[in-house]
From TrEMBL:
The keyword Repeat does not apply. InterPro entries: Acyl_CoA_acyltransferase, GNAT_dom, N-term/lysine_N-AcTrnsfr. GO terms for molecular function: N-acetyltransferase activity. The chain crosses the membrane at residues 39-60. Keywords: Acyltransferase, Membrane, Transferase, Transmembrane, Transmembrane helix. GO terms for biological process: mitotic sister chromatid cohesion. The keyword DNA-binding does not apply. Pfam families: Acetyltransf_1. This is N-acetyltransferase domain-containing protein. SUPFAM superfamilies: Acyl-CoA N-acyltransferases (Nat) (SSF55729). Residues 2-153 form the N-acetyltransferase domain. It comes from the Eukaryota. It comes from Brassica cretica (Mustard). GO terms for cellular component: NatA complex.
Length: 155
């Protein structure tokens, strides 16, 4: 892989061309499965490519709550051999920039309570644990999750 090389970040919307790549990545990276109807609610979908190989992706959904817009991060993942070279950070920063430009009030996600690496990662970007939901997950242990939230100043 070469530690001195910069990872090339390619952005692409959800299309037939990359849908199978997203499904394969999610199968490898996450114990939770999304059904096909979920992809139609994407606010954004970006893939990270390293030497023309899809090695990471982020998928988010736009929601409204109390008349304000917020974004839910459905998935953010990078294949293990490509972690530590800021691909996940680039993906998340791009979405955070979009949220700021689109006047989104907050962005949030669910994280398994034992996923210390993910919690530490999101806290570096200003996310806070705002709730704990018992028995959120059905088929994985632990079943509990944290809700991590980052609020944006409204102009």
């Amino acid at each position: 892989m070469g530690t001195g090389r910069e990872a090339s970040l390619s952005l692409d919307g959800v299309r037939d061309k990359n849908m199978m790549q997203l499904k394969k990545l999610n199968t490898v990276l996450f114990p939770v499965r999304y059904n096909d109807k979920d992809v139609f609610f994407f606010f954004c979908f970006f893939s990270a490519y390293y030497s023309d190989i899809c090695v990471g992706a982020i998928a988010c959904r736009l929601e409204t709550k109390g008349g304000t817009m917020r974004v839910y991060i459905m998935t953010l993942g990078v294949l293990a051999p490509y972690r530590g070279i800021r691909i996940g950070s680039k993906l998340l920063n791009h979405v955070l920039d979009m949220c700021t430009k689109q006047n989104v009030s907050e962005i949030y996600l669910h994280v398994q309570t034992n996923n210390d690496d993910a919690i530490k990662f999101y806290k570096k970007f200003g996310f806070d644990i705002t709730d704990t939901i018992p028995d959120y997950y059905i088929n994985i242990e632990p079943r509990d999750c944290y809700v991590l939230t980052k609020s944006f100043a409204q102009i």
